[in-house]
Amino acid sequence: MKISLRTKLIISFLAVILICGLVATLVGSRLIVTGIIRQAQDKVEIDLNSARHIYQDEVKNIKDIVRFTTMRFFIEEAILENDIEMLKTELEKIRKREFLDILTLTDKNGRVIVRSRNPSVYSDNQAHDDLVGWVLSRREVATATVIVPGEELIKEGVDLVEQAYIKFISTPKARPRLETEETSGMMIKAAAPVFYNGSLIGVLYGGNLLSRDYKIVDGVKDTVYQGVKYKGKDIGTSTIFQCNLRISTNVKREDGSRAIGTRVSEEVYEQVLVKGLSWIDRAFVVNNWYIAAYEPIKDINGEIIGILYVGVLEEKFTDMRNSTKALFLGIALAGMIIALIVSGFLAKGVLEPIKRLVFASHQWAKGNLQYRVKIRSKDEIGELGETFNLMASSLKERDEKLKEYTEQQIMKSERLATLGQLAAGVAHEINNPLGAVLMYVHLVLEDLEAKGLIRKNLEKVVREATRCKDIVKGLLDFAHQTKPMFKEWDINGVLERTLSLVENQALFQNIKIKKVISPSLAKVMIDASQIQQVFTNIIINAAEAMEGKGELTIATRMTLEDKPIEIEFTDTGCGIIQENLEKLFDPFFTTKEMGHGTGLGLAVSYGIITRHEGAIEVKSEPGKGTTFFIRLPLKRGEN
Prior knowledge:
Blueprint: H1 5-70, H2 73-81, H3 84-97, E1 102-107, E2 112-115, H4 130-138, E3 142-148, H5 150-156, H6 158-164, E4 166-167, E5 181-182, E6 185-196, E7 199-209, H7 215-225, E8 229-230, E9 233-234, E10 236-242, E11 245-249, H8 266-274, E12 279-285, E13 288-298, E14 304-313, H9 314-366, H10 380-447, H11 453-476, E15 487-489, H12 491-502, E16 510-516, E17 524-526, H13 528-545, E18 549-558, E19 565-571, H14 578-581, H15 601-611, E20 615-621, E21 625-632
Parallel strand pairs: 16-18
Antiparallel strand pairs: 1-2, 1-7, 3-6, 4-5, 6-7, 8-9, 10-11, 10-14, 12-13, 13-14, 15-17, 18-19, 19-21, 20-21
Helix pairs in contact: 1-7, 1-9, 2-3, 5-6, 9-10, 10-11, 12-13, 13-15
């Protein structure tokens, strides 16, 4: 069977297109699936970190309550005077006000004096308790998660025994256990010594039973996942396990009830409870697959007694993966169809010179010697080679133009994506936790006395957390040029406050900070939060340039004109080359490695100083360090 050259060329093009398309589709799909899985695992790992912080905050809260209670004057007097009734009354008030499940006082030998929740049971010896024993032997505060046996819980209150009692529920893939019920309870507990004139006169311990207490897990769900649902299901869940038993969870069973009494799978049990390692992978949780993260919870002796878990519904990522694969496949198929159409035109273009050569050959064979083919070469191979060279040159020129255009678009997209990713990440990962911090600190402040070191420290937390939110807002509003809130400030005070926040960081451990501060500076009209952000950016950049080792000199002075104030930052770092020095304040320009800087810090700083009608300059030599100069006018409109 005779097959035309055109058909052969089209079949050849089609084979190449199909092979390349299939390879691209398979490789691209694989990369997409891997990327989505990695993204999900990275997210759940971050979520686990957030859950751990929330859990540790609860541990610290109980520790602080117990420790501060031991400092109340009535405890010392009541113990010395054996005023049991006062102890019962006051401790019960504190327990209820602080929402503690137990608050119990022992004597210096560990024998119970008063149980605020169950005052009818006393005189038993608690010296065998790990935390009480720790305090008795070391005379310091101890806090940990502990397992409280049923016989000890009943001493603290019969209702706690009922709260801790959990009957096991079987679910698919759950690790089997011989027991059918749990009577002991898992508790966050703290114990602190009570002193009088330097002598130990008692031990106060308190805590909250985690069994059926959903404060922590629901706090994680609300803070990290914000109650988002997917197809009617919670997108994220959290659980606290006692050994491998769910005792506090917002994972739901089929009937919508909390999955209390269910257990983890065998593989998670072996990894976390036996080997003591974290688990970050897909896992079957009660009745659904989740991208899950587990880590062990240990008691004061380092023994693993439970698990902290967070998980994101896998169904969302599965749907995302499938839709992305379908989109990628559709694009690949469309590309192959377009390429096939183009190949038809190319085949025609390749055949035309050959046809002209054949036609010319026929004319010459017939004796028509005047017929000429418009070619540059004197033979058919040369003319065919020139045609292919011209086509190749055209394709190359077109490809270069397309590549140049594509690179420009990719660079533009990457810059926009970087800013969008940064803004979204800041809003989700910082604003929400900071909001929660502010809320809880305000709640604690409402219960504290009007004066005192603790309140002062907490007020500092509120002030600095609020400043962090202002910084985030400033970053998000970078393009909008947020207007400063001007007020008179002592620039030396702002600088000292900035240093107090950064100099204790690990990056500054081997950096000597030399301060040459002028004590007679006049106050300036500035937005202290924004100026502190500028100082922080420059100081941290200097520390990173010195790789955590060197000397940073900070000086403040009045200029010769006695008008602007000048702040100088000089480091002994690697310096900056002249080429980069000219682009230092450009948005998105950075010399840091990928993933270690957005290139917005100095651009934001430049914008802040400009809006303060000031100036910022930099001098640097490679290998000799860098100096930043900031000049701020005493009054607005004054240069």
